[in-house]
Amino acid sequence: MAEKPGEDVDSGPKPTVLFLHPDLGVGGAERLVLDAALALQARGCSVKIWTAHYDPGHCFAESRELSVHCAGDWLPRSLGWGGRGAAVCAYVRMIFLALYVLFLGDEEFDVVVCDQVSACLPVFKLARRRKKILFYCHFPDLLLTRRDSFIKRLYRAPIDWVEEYTTGMADCILVNSRFTAAVFKETFKSLSHIDPAVLYPSLNIVSFDSAIPEKLDDIVPQGKKFIFLSINRYERKKNLTLALEALVKLRGRLTSQDWDKVHLIIAGGYDERVLENVQHYQELKKMVQQSDLGQYVTFLRSCSDKQKISLLRGCTCVLYTPSNEHFGIVPLEAMYMQCPVIAVNSGGPLESIVHSVTGFLCDPDPEHFSEAIEKFIQEPSLKATMGLAGRNRVKEKFSPEAFTEQLYQYVTKLLV
């Protein structure tokens, strides 16, 4: 279904592409959607993004370079306290958004690019002029939730079926890594005849190269020489506690002089509308207090792009703690900024990080992470050598030029 791009299908008018995305916030999925939209726009395509929620103040700055429209934000995000029913609400919001675009939005487009929620894809089969559908699967949604009760299993059964059935309605399916491709085949049994193609996320390198560094004096205490950085949303599945637990283990491995030079910054996406973000932030703060790490940890919530780039430029190493991460854009950002990465040895980081060359891949336990962190303290030259290797790897394997060309080929092939 998803053929490998071959010859450039570049004759005739450029396609008009419409992106449909649930919530244009500051996560990895949103980063990819924006990069994809900007890439196609740079290639001459007419591009618009439609989303159920968009706040320019809580989104990547590049969103302002695109035509972004919003519909359906009045619909609920959950059915009650604790975020219950979020999946059903996401389906309803995206189906409404698709219906709005098709029948009320006065939009003309050749290809719709959808990600995260496939339930809206059947709507585009209702169009008078057939629309080609490209679905980007970050990861099967049915694997992202627990089924720890009969009621939950009963609730998820139709949702899971809809996800699998509607995903198969796409004309082209892309995934973000070989890891996700394997999980896709293993999870969606009825789609075993489909071989999704891998399109690795890329970086908007221009934004990194043009950023003016900000001073970090108000974030990093004086006298700190070894700055370690964690960048992830405030979600439990991101395993941010691993970074704190590794810091506790590190304290026992260092002399008091070296320990006093260590500082950890936990920065990440934070949305007050998301209950888990609020709860987990408080859990992490409590853990810092109980571990007596108050002087060694700084929390940043929803830091700006400039702040993030400045932190990557100034830190010793990035700690990337999620297990089985579908791809993970943070390791690419870090490596491009010549910052080594210590990551869990599973999922996407196995494809982006070269062990002992651009960083370290470790078992997801505090002992192994603290051992890797200590190497950067005992051998400060590692940052420079691994940092340079990381930047070269991003340029060679994850360049925006390769991403743009591949995506453009997939889109134009749909119209042949």
UniProtKB/TrEMBL annotation:
Domain Glycosyltransferase subfamily 4-like N-terminal: start-end pairs:
26-189
Query: What's the top EC group for this one?
Result: transferase
Q: Which Gene3D superfamilies match?
A: Glycogen Phosphorylase B
| Annotated ranges, domain Glycosyl transferase family | 219-392
Predominant place of localization? endoplasmic reticulum
Q: What does this protein do?
A: Mannosylates Man(2)GlcNAc(2)-dolichol diphosphate and Man(1)GlcNAc(2)-dolichol diphosphate to form Man(3)GlcNAc(2)-dolichol diphosphate.
- GO CC term, one of those recorded: cytoplasmic side of endoplasmic reticulum membrane
Which Pfam families does the entry mention? Glyco_transf_4 (PF13439), Glycos_transf_1 (PF00534)
PANTHER family in the record, alphabetically? ALPHA-1,3/1,6-MANNOSYLTRANSFERASE ALG2 (PTHR45918), ALPHA-1,3_1,6-MANNOSYLTRANSFERASE ALG2 (PTHR45918:SF1)
Q: Name one GO biological process term.
A: dolichol-linked oligosaccharide biosynthetic process
This protein's pathway: Protein modification; protein glycosylation
Could you tell me what this protein is called?
Alpha-1,3/1,6-mannosyltransferase ALG2
**Location(s) in or outside the cell:** Endoplasmic reticulum membrane
Keywords on record: Endoplasmic reticulum, Glycosyltransferase, Membrane, Transferase, Transmembrane, Transmembrane helix
Q: One MF term from GO for this chain?
A: GDP-Man:Man(2)GlcNAc(2)-PP-Dol alpha-1,6-mannosyltransferase activity
Q: Which family does it belong to?
A: Belongs to the glycosyltransferase group 1 family. Glycosyltransferase 4 subfamily.
Which CDD domains does the protein's record reference? GT4_ALG2-like (cd03805)
**UniProt superkingdom:** Eukaryota
From what organism does this protein derive? Capra hircus
Q: How does it sit in the membrane?
A: Single-pass membrane protein
Q: Which SUPFAM superfamilies match?
A: UDP-Glycosyltransferase/glycogen phosphorylase
Q: What catalytic reaction does the record list?
A: an alpha-D-Man-(1->3)-beta-D-Man-(1->4)-beta-D-GlcNAc-(1->4)-alpha-D-GlcNAc-diphospho-di-trans,poly-cis-dolichol + GDP-alpha-D-mannose = an alpha-D-Man-(1->3)-[alpha-D-Man-(1->6)]-beta-D-Man-(1->4)-beta-D-GlcNAc-(1->4)-alpha-D-GlcNAc-diphospho-di-trans,poly-cis-dolichol + GDP + H(+); an alpha-D-Man-(1->6)-beta-D-Man-(1->4)-beta-D-GlcNAc-(1->4)-alpha-D-GlcNAc-diphospho-di-trans,poly-cis-dolichol + GDP-alpha-D-mannose = an alpha-D-Man-(1->3)-[alpha-D-Man-(1->6)]-beta-D-Man-(1->4)-beta-D-GlcNAc-(1->4)-alpha-D-GlcNAc-diphospho-di-trans,poly-cis-dolichol + GDP + H(+); a beta-D-Man-(1->4)-beta-D-GlcNAc-(1->4)-alpha-D-GlcNAc-diphospho-di-trans,poly-cis-dolichol + GDP-alpha-D-mannose = an alpha-D-Man-(1->3)-beta-D-Man-(1->4)-beta-D-GlcNAc-(1->4)-alpha-D-GlcNAc-diphospho-di-trans,poly-cis-dolichol + GDP + H(+); a beta-D-Man-(1->4)-beta-D-GlcNAc-(1->4)-alpha-D-GlcNAc-diphospho-di-trans,poly-cis-dolichol + GDP-alpha-D-mannose = an alpha-D-Man-(1->6)-beta-D-Man-(1->4)-beta-D-GlcNAc-(1->4)-alpha-D-GlcNAc-diphospho-di-trans,poly-cis-dolichol + GDP + H(+)
What EC number(s) does this enzyme carry?
A: 2.4.1.132, 2.4.1.257
